[in-house]
Amino acid sequence: MDSSYSENASLHVSNYGATSLASSFSPSSSSSTSSRYENQKRRDWNTFGQYLKNHRPPLFLSRCSGAHVLEFLRYLDQFGKTKVHIPICPFYGHPNPPAPCPCPLRQAWGSLDALIGRLRAAFEENGGKPEANPFGARAVRLYLREVRDLQSKARGISYEKKKRKRPPAQQIPTLPLPPQPGAS
């Protein structure tokens, strides 16, 4: 990996908690009415494009696979802020350890999951075919599941899927049916 990329990059934390790497790559102009999600998606897309450009040898998006996406996610780990305890750490499985430890900082699973979601959408919005989307590759899904499970155990935090709140069923008053002709 070319070190010039890390020199031209800074860590960006969006307003809603997802962490991504935002490069100094000049983004295309967008309207001021874009949502935070759209702006973050554009920044993530530009960052991934810059990563491909600085990759040795340089990669074209059309040649990008799930393996390259995994390489990108592992690269982003160096900018992580989430302490992930290793199994031999005395704080393994504790969500709030009482003292510092030498365990590594990593990207949080939720941040990676959100990043992949945005990049998956951006790929298709930029002309990619859904069946060729490297961000939806099986290897990427398995990696995210593995990171989630590892971080859940290491940090003592359960990542349960949130249950959707369904509106309470309204009682519809039932009216008696009118008598049928010929029925006595």
Question: What does this protein look like?
Answer:
The protein is mainly α. It has helices spanning 3-7, 36-54, 66-76, 109-125, 138-155; strands spanning 9-13, 19-23, 82-83, 105-106. Strands 1-2 form a two-stranded antiparallel ribbon. Strand 1 and strand 2 form a beta hairpin. Helix 2 (36-54) packs across helix 4 (109-125), helix 3 runs parallel beside helix 5 and helix 4 runs antiparallel to helix 5. The longest helix is centred in the first third of the chain and has 19 residues, at 36-54. Residues 1-31 have low confidence and may be disordered.
How does the overall form come out from the CA principal axes? flat
What oligomeric state do the depicted chains represent?
single chain
| Helical segment count | 5
Stretches where pLDDT falls below 50 for ≥5 residues? 1-31
Mean pLDDT: 79
Helix proportion range? 25-40%
The total strand number stands at 4
Termini distance?
A: 87 Å
Q: Strand percentage, roughly?
A: 5-15%
Largest sheet, strands/sense/barrel: 2 strands, antiparallel
Biggest sheet: strand arrangement:
1-2
User: What is the SS-derived class?
Assistant: mainly alpha
